[in-house]
Amino acid sequence: MQTRFQILCIFTLIVFSAYSQRPSAAERRFNSEQVNSCINYVNKTIPGTTAARFFSSCFPSTLDTTVLTFDPQGNDAFIITGDIPALWLRDSAAQVWPYLPLCKKDERLRLLIRGLLRRQFRCILIDPYANAFNLDPNAMSPNWASDETTMKPGVFERKYELNSLCYPLRLAYGYWKATNDNSLFDTLWLNTVRTIYQTMKAQQDVTHSSPYTFMRVTDRMHDTMSNRGKGHPARPCGLIASAFRASDDCCIFPYNIPDNFMAASVLKRTAEILREVNHDPLLADSLHTLSTQIDKALKEYAVVKTEKYGDIYAFEVDGYGNHLLMDDANVPSLLSLPYISDVEPNDSLYKNTRNYVLSSDNPYYFRGSAGAGIGGPHVGMDFIWPMSIIMQAITSTDTAEIKACLTTLHTTDAGTSLMHEAFHKDDACNYTRPWFAWANTLYGELILKIIEEGNESILKD
Questions:
Q1: Residue 394: inside a domain, yes or no?
Q2: Are 85 and 135 in contact (CB under 8 A)?
């Protein structure tokens, strides 16, 4: 029979193990005193809570495990997604986004993010149609060199996604606002912005102006494109076409609505930098005009009337009047519009859309004994992405809803105190990608948001 002391020792061991998901200090890829201080702050604010335990493991995950290279001068940094050793423009920008408020007091962290942006700019200049890049800019892809598209040295994967061009612009603006560092915005920056603008303009008339095609020998439909690599036809309407979604799955209809909302937002903010820092009103006006065209087209082509939910946003359209109603877990998503664009959480169209995407009428919303949330075709039916649950909480104004999301997140980690890519709706131990840094850092952002808004009582068990 175990004594009370033995039971206490076992309990202490369990608790200690749960708090020790981080690599040892010697094994961490990058150390930030401000991130460590932030972890201490959260542990003091909500001591002994499940949220504090998860935060201690999740928030530093990107720095602890995914920084492959870092130039202390702030000219280069290479950050991988986790268990895939490549830099995704989208993922890497999203992974460091929650660290921006800490940069003023942490020079080394600031230089890491600056270095990442410099690397992203150089990657875009290699190929603005690529979504992921190799550490070695001269190396051919170890995985996808045989894809039927124009593969270049340095490119890991060449799935064109509009969001891949948006995320570095979003991060650059956030970096500027957080640090007041104008030195980032030099010739490399201007060449990158011009390349992004030219690519987006070409994708406004994708059928006639786009040089991009993509095909892959695969047993997964979402990994290749129809019409000999051109994808579904699109009628020019002011929106910007994308070949693939934020999930890296191909678009059904070329105008992905969440991506276009994000593009309209980041183009306006980039124009602000061009005016105030670069003193380039002509390029700024070009970007602002493109943003205005997208905004106008979204009002005209993105809205669909439904009997049950009223007017809602489609997920994808083609300019011919066809539309796809669904949402995907990856960001940008319809659910994430207040997070990645200028859409307000209380906007009536967004609220209607939110009601739709968080219902069984969304074909990729799953509910089971383990939890409920949005998935997508990338992993398959009945798999819920924690990222979608985190985003549901981040965009929610309902305390009960946020708490329910946290409960699901804290009970579907399979004992790891980390976020995964996806878990089965009826079995959280059946999950994909144990090392997925974006979801971990996003969870940390959620916890800090709740505390900063004075709602830490939600986090207490």
A1: yes
A2: yes
Full residue range of the structural domain in which residue 225 is found: 14-459
Beta-strand pair 77-79/316-317: unpaired
Residue 205 lies in a domain: yes
Helices 437-452, 33-45: axis angle to 10 degrees equals: 50
* φ, ψ dihedrals at 244, nearest 5°: -130, 160
Q: Which of the four pLDDT bands, split at 50, 70 and 90, describes residue 6?
A: very low
CB atoms within 10 A of CB 136: 10
259 within 8 A of 163, measured Cβ to Cβ: yes
pTM strictly above 0.90: yes
- CA–CA distance, 360 with 145 (Å, rounded to integer): 39
Please name the residue ranges forming H helices in 78-140: 89-96, 107-126
Q: Please tell me the predicted confidence (pLDDT) of residue 11.
A: 41
Domain of residue 273, CATH code: 1.50.10.10
Task: Write the pLDDT tens digit of every residue in 208-260.
Answer: 899 999 999 999 999 999 999 999 999 999 999 999 999 999 999 999 999 99
